[in-house]
Specification:
Helix content: 25-40%
Number of helices: 5
Number of strands: 8
Distance between the termini: 23 Å
Mean pLDDT: 92
Length: 165
């Protein structure tokens, strides 16, 4: 079973062929490239997973994160992480399957309408399609809250470590 952790969240990637912590300085050396947190390979696609967890009890400044989200400064950062990660994988010869970009935004106070608006903004910022491209750069691009993530990937796909008694 492949289990990876990002601070207070633990992810079960046992249904994947392989899952790696892509945001690892040992893998990228002194690169200034932005990186998604995890990459998981499945039979017919890759998942690039970026985690933002202002609900983490140990989060330094959830208010600053919310301001970054509301001001529009977060979305370009998320788009850059995907583009740089995809570019790195493509140049490494590891981009042979369609890719799904999933941003897990664990912020219970976030309204569903705002979540959808930010998802649309992210899709425009990538962009997903271009007239000169033979295929979209992402098969899917979604921003999910913790409950949506669990509904999509299973109740045991992620757990909060601090909630374990």
């Amino acid at each position: 079973m492949t289990v990876l952790s990002e601070d207070d969240l633990e992810f079960d990637f046992s249904s994947s062929i392989e899952a790696i912590c892509f945001d690892d300085n040992a893998l990228h050396k002194h690169s200034t490239m932005k990186r998604v947190d995890f990459i998981a390979e499945f039979a017919d696609h890759f998942v690039f997973l970026e985690i933002k967890d202002p609900d983490n009890p140990a989060a330094a400044n959830p208010g600053a994160f919310k301001q970054k989200l509301l001001s529009g400064n977060l979305i370009p950062d998320l788009a850059g992480k995907y583009r740089d990660s995809l570019w790195f994988r493509a140049l490494s010869g590891k981009s042979v399957k369609p890719t799904r970009y999933i941003v897990l935004l664990s912020m219970a106070s976030l309204e569903p309408a705002l979540l959808l608006a930010k998802q649309d903004e992210l899709q425009r910022s990538l962009p997903i399609n271009h007239t000169d491209w033979s295929a979209p750069c992402a098969q899917a691009c979604v921003i999910l809250n913790l409950d949506q993530y669990k509904k999509q990937f299973g109740a045991d796909s992620v757990r909060r470590l601090s909630a374990e008694g």
